[in-house]
Amino acid sequence: MATANKVSVIPCGAMTADLTWLLLKPGRSIVDRSHKNNPAPWVDVPSHCVLVETDEGKILWDTSCPRDWEERWGPTGLQEFFPYDKVSDDEYLDSRLNQMGVGLDEIDYVILSHLHFDHAGNAQMFKNTNAKLVCHEKEREFAFGFGGLFNGAHLKTDYEGLDFQTVSGDTEFLPGVKLIETPGHTVGTMSMQVTLPDSGTMIFTSDAVYMGESYGPPATPAAIVNNLEQFYASVEKLRGIQEDTNATMVFGHDAEQIHQLRLAPESSYT
């Protein structure tokens, strides 16, 4: 079986937000009458990217949020609901890559799990590089197909003027790297399965599964789900793959899990 060589999970600080955006769960984000006067909990929403090194090239999976988030998100109002306010200067993606000694010219592919503002926020960094940008064909169709500047969390400023290669279906992309169709959060959300020699299989769910509480079982949806039926189907698809491969699941925005992972630049998976 083909394997990748190395995976580096790159922590990029955190947004904060009302938990309800991420988890529609009675007793957690939906309260009973004895707690009806309590404010909804605000939680950390960590952001990460992943660098995958293979014999046939380096992949950057997602690009996190931009340094100019407050100004760029201003027209959308998203900065009021998802402020990227728990990030230090050394946690922005460009700083992280510098700490890792990885130049933009070393990255062969930038794969966007989907094109929301907190995943495609630094895609423009790669505009004049040799990196090939990749997303799902349905994601590109939607992201470039609506009128106006933004639609929900899709913000054209993040990705306009960029050329995207597209994939569809479950795709063996590079040795040890498989892209998995997991729509529901958006029409073209993907997850990434990576097989490593020592660490085995890892699945990076992106926003197909926000956090361990979302995964369950039972699966728990969120306020930001484009298609609920697809969301449930995608979670169970990932669960099936995990059961078959004994994969380590890395969720999209899990504030507890992010601190339990081996994190770049100090550590990695092989």
From TrEMBL:
<dbReference type="Pfam" id="PF00753">
    <property type="entry name" value="Lactamase_B"/>
</dbReference>
<dbReference type="InterPro" id="IPR001279">
    <property type="entry name" value="Metallo-B-lactamas"/>
</dbReference>
<protein>
    <submittedName>
        <fullName>N-acyl homoserine lactonase family protein</fullName>
    </submittedName>
</protein>
<keyword id="KW-0479">Metal-binding</keyword>
<dbReference type="InterPro" id="IPR051013">
    <property type="entry name" value="MBL_superfamily_lactonases"/>
</dbReference>
<keyword id="KW-0378">Hydrolase</keyword>
<dbReference type="InterPro" id="IPR036866">
    <property type="entry name" value="RibonucZ/Hydroxyglut_hydro"/>
</dbReference>
<keyword id="KW-0862">Zinc</keyword>
<feature type="domain" description="Metallo-beta-lactamase">
    <location>
        <begin position="46"/>
        <end position="253"/>
    </location>
</feature>
<comment type="similarity">
    <text>Belongs to the metallo-beta-lactamase superfamily.</text>
</comment>
